[in-house]
Amino acid sequence: MSEHEGPSGLDDLDTRIRAAREREMAETEVKPGRRTSSSGIALGMRISIEFVAGVAVGVGIGWGLDHFFGTKPLLMVLFLLLGGGAGVMNAYRAAKGLDATVGLGMAQRRQAKRTKDR
After folding, report:
1. CA-CA distance, 92 to 4, in Å (whole number)?
2. What is the per-residue DSSP string for 71-106?
3. How far is CA 62 from the centre of its chain?
4. pTM attached to this predicted model
5. What b/e string do you get for 55-92 counting C-beta neighbours within 10 Å, with b at 16 or more?
6. Could you tell me which residues come within 8 angstroms of residue 76 by beta carbon, excluding any fewer than 6 positions away?
7. pLDDT tens-place string over residues 14-48
8. What are phi and psi of 29, to 5 degrees?
9. What distance, in Å, lies between the first and last C-alpha atoms of the chain?
């Protein structure tokens, strides 16, 4: 591109780039009710990791607090249950396709707005 083309050359380039991106998105788009096998495996792995991580963090915090306060299985059991609940909540959010917005209600509203805008 020469220096004499100016803004019209950039506008033309921008138009061509946008058209190419739209074509690529249309070619690679997955239908809403249909997932490819690799995305299903990835989602399953993410859900299982979310659950296991929640339980592991809960047990770790409970064990540490039990060790510190000397209340041996009490806090570990309590935080095991809390970590399990957090893991289930994170797995639910991953399965529903909700983003990492703080708070489930905010993530659900953002998801609803996204689907309404389409």
Report:
1. 56
2. -HHHHHHHHHHHHHHHHHHHHHHHHHT--S-SSHHH
3. 27
4. 0.58
5. beebbebbbebbeeeeeeeebbebbbebbeebbeebbe
6. 59, 62, 63, 65, 66
7. 899 988 888 887 776 655 555 555 678 888 898 99
8. -70, 135
9. 36
Tokens (6 digits) for 61: 């915090």
Phi and psi, residue 116, nearest 5° = -70, -35
Distance CA 68, CA 109 (A): 41
pLDDT of 65 reads 96
* Single-letter amino acid code for the residue at 70: G
The two tokens of residue 77 are 């059991």
CA distance 50 to 60: 15
Angle, helices 37-69 vs 72-96, to 10°: value is 160
Report residue 37 as tokens: 């096998």
Give the type of residue at 1. M
> For residue 55, which of 91, 78, 86, 90 has the smallest C-alpha distance?
86
